[in-house]
User: Fold this.
Amino acid sequence: MKTLISFALAVCATAAMLAGCSSGGSGSPSPALGSAGSNASQRGAHTLGQRHDGFMGFVEGIAHPDHHKSWRSPELKKDINGRQLWISDTGTYDVYIYDLPSLTPVATLTGFSQPQGECSDSSGDVWITNTGYYSGNHVIYEYSHDGTLLNTLTDPTGLPVGCAWDKTTGNLAVTNIFNDGGSEPPGGILVYTGATGTPTVYQDPDPNIYAYFSAGYDGRGNLFFDVAPYSYTPAYIDKIPKGSSSVHRITVSGGTIYGPGAVQWIPAHGGGKLMVEDDDCSNSFSPITSCIDYITISHSAGTITSTAALNNSQGAAACSVSQVVRSGMKLYAGDYEDFGTAYVCANPSAGTTIDTWSYPSAGNPLKTSAILSSYNEPDGTAISAP
Assistant:
């Protein structure tokens, strides 16, 4: 998850109101939202107009929205019980639907304004956060398994980038990377009771926490999400226990999360673990590498017990993977390989793809879609399985 998705530094130039657009020296740009690393000013300078870096954040300046109509293959409506992979794309402003396990495209949904994080519910409906930084259309859409728009929720405070659905209550949690208040104050996590109405907003009590990325519920209704200070490194894991109205910090040992991305609870007999995507695992600007951290949780403590590297279609380190989702013994996500910046990606000639990896080891993809164009920047991912 291009770690949840980054915002373009071009916003600083366009809006000139992003808090802290200078990062120390005169004229030095800040890092893109969703990015992290030890050399923030260098990363930010490179991001300007060149790179989409980070899951749950924004696109890099110039997106390429399509103006064609949505299309649906006849197979989409025929296969009402089939499994689908949904991918949101902040480069084209579209959402793509693929059949599983073939990865055959079966539909394209258009008309979005920065579609980012995705999550699915037990009916197979898919929720899509529409960040809408430029349009002001800060909403969350609910689509049925056959690609029909069912519902629209309004985000009253900010810029939605990630979401999670709670099977125990039917609540929907949405992360705002920051709040769209003119001076860009800290973001938060919004919980829509019954996935409807006006949400309740929660924030980390730490005043240094600025950005909120991705979220995931466990099977008992506890909500986990990753956050970061304005410098975006290191990242932290927070928790809202079921029934609680306060945010608690999970103290994580055994490693550091530098590029916070997807958060998903993996159930297991006698417990479970968090799967957290990191699209800057080496904390190195060049090359950027993506991986997955598996974290065991015990009350307010967490331990990174293992890390799995994500490789691209040519076997090199994947450059920018955003929202990885697990389904069974497979992992799914898009890998954004920036064609124009070879010194950032380990092997950008691999091209941007939609990939399947083995769970939990990841490594080289088991299956890869056709190479996508340089306009595509896949971000959010969901499995629709009614």
